[in-house]
Amino acid sequence: MPQLYAGELVIRDARVYDAKQLVTWWSDGKVMAHAGYPKGLNTSLTLTQERLKKQKDNFQKEALWMIELKQTPIGEMHHKINGDVAKIGIKICVSEHQGKGYGPKATTLLIEYLFKKLSVNIIELDTNVNNIHAQKMYERLGFTALGVRRKAFVDQLGQLQDAIDYRLTKDSWENNRR
Fold first, then answer.
1. Is the dihedral of CA 166, 167, 173, 175 positive or negative?
2. DSSP designation for 162
3. Residue 77: Cβ-neighbour burial (10 angstroms; 0-12, 13-18, 19+)
4. Which positions ≥6 away from 94 have C-beta within 8 Å?
5. Of 47, 115, 147, 169, which one has the greatest count of Cβ atoms within 10 A?
6. Does residue 30 contact residue 39 with C-beta atoms inside 8 Å?
7. pLDDT (0 to 100) of residue 178
8. Which helix (H) or strand (E) holds 26?
9. Model confidence over 32-62: pLDDT tens digits?
10. What is the pLDDT of residues 83-122, one digit of tens each?
């Protein structure tokens, strides 16, 4: 399984022993609020462990990644590939590590991996319209905002939420890196 490095930052495949950490983060409403889950996700350790066991067989198509700083987990990412299009997501889950540039570094590592190793030509993602910090990061990395989806989802508090869809093409990424 791949391990991708940027100095002391590593992204690696999430493993069964990471399930407890993932469930802790996913159950935390503060961590999950931007994704529409201010009460956290209702998931179990067993279900998460099963998901991670299965991931080994299909890693190139769908995977959870751990983001580590100095061998300590600080966040998670995921990708799911359909054809030549990958959908991704990222969370720096440890608040004291947010806003320090780890999100862009980790996202760049994943983008490079998807474009160079997995033959992806398009990467898509979305974010809550209120998540200005993430929007700025995606745009700095070269993603293009495709538009706002009004009433994209209802959060756990019953509030309608809007989302912004983003896209990055392999050609655009390579042209901006020259």
1. negative
2. E
3. buried
4. 73, 74, 75
5. 115
6. no
7. 65
8. helix 19-26
9. 988 888 899 989 999 999 999 988 778 889 9
10. 999 999 999 999 999 999 999 999 999 999 999 999 899 9
